[in-house]
Amino acid sequence: MAKAYLKITVEAGKEREVCSALRRMPEVKSADLTTGDQDIIAVVEAASYEILLKTIIEKLRQVSGISGTSTSLVLD
User: To the nearest 5 percent, what fractions of the chain are helix, strand and coil?
Assistant: First the structure.
């Protein structure tokens, strides 16, 4: 199982909309609104790192309202 933490920056006023969209994706195990430099922290899981990266690039980064992401892959 591959896992990553995504720190997501969102356009002003779109935080709840983006968080709800992320929570509807089966690969997203959690998505929480946060304070600090990022607006949302999400946990994403997939069967392999290849599938995980494809999910992040092709699905998550395409969500309307996301202005930036920073991804940390879980090693162990």
Answer: 30, 40, 30
